[in-house]
Amino acid sequence: MSRDARWKTLLELLVERGRLDVEEAAAELAVSAATIRRDFDQLAEQQMLVRTRGGAVVHGVSYELPLRYKTARRASEKERIGQAVAALVAPGEAVGLTGGTTTTEVARALAVRPDLASGTPALTVVTNALNIANELAVRPQFKIVVTGGVARAQSYELIGPLADGVLGQITMDVAVLGVVAFDVTHGAAAHDEAEAAINRLLCERAGRVVVAADSTKLGRRAFARICAAGTVDTLVTDAAVDADTVRRFEEAGITVVAV
Fold first, then answer.
1. Is 60 helix (H, G, I), strand (E, B) or coil?
2. Residue 184 and residue 166: Cα distance in Å, rounded?
3. Do residues 155 and 135 lie in contact, with contact meaning Cβ atoms separated by under 8 Å?
4. Interval 162-182: pLDDT, tens
5. Which of 13, 163, 167, 173 could pair with 149 in a Cys bridge, judged by C-beta atoms 3.0 to 4.6 Å apart?
């Protein structure tokens, strides 16, 4: 197993469990305890975790796994969600995309849609996510608008007043939100308040709002609210969502698409 693969697995286990012992992690990854100690030390230097005697714990109360380590988590579900969200977008529309692994899959699904292979433009994409802009910029039929702002290392998203300035001057047909939590009572949320503020403004500038979130994000709360549930028109999630959760969202007036 490569170092990057080990680090990704270790961080995923930490997010799930809150803490890991060296011997426990070594057994799960089938490597030596010395390798795990070295991995923990190097990840601690990057402030990705906190070292403890004999192991490690997550870094902070509201821990957020950096985007580069999240790409393989629930990958098939996110791919299906991305395709379903992309199908809701009509040619010629202006689409806002926030950052995140699920919205990145939306961007990839839009990029390969045959009916969006040409046009002037075939689609206008407004995003504050550097990785999404980078992936779509090679599509000459897409008009890509990047908000500007200060890059946030965890999510590759641009945040701050510079992004506000751009979003305040435009309107969009649809905004697609990637979230860390979505609940009927508490709404859609992110870990970071500056990121949530930009995402909220994206919603306000759009005619309709779609939340793209796998079922593990539903019924949960996070630190910074993006918008109330009533702001959202459509929720696209995976087929593992339970019937009671679907019912609660539908009672709140939200169309639920489970794929």
1. coil
2. 30
3. no
4. 888 899 999 999 999 999 999
5. 163
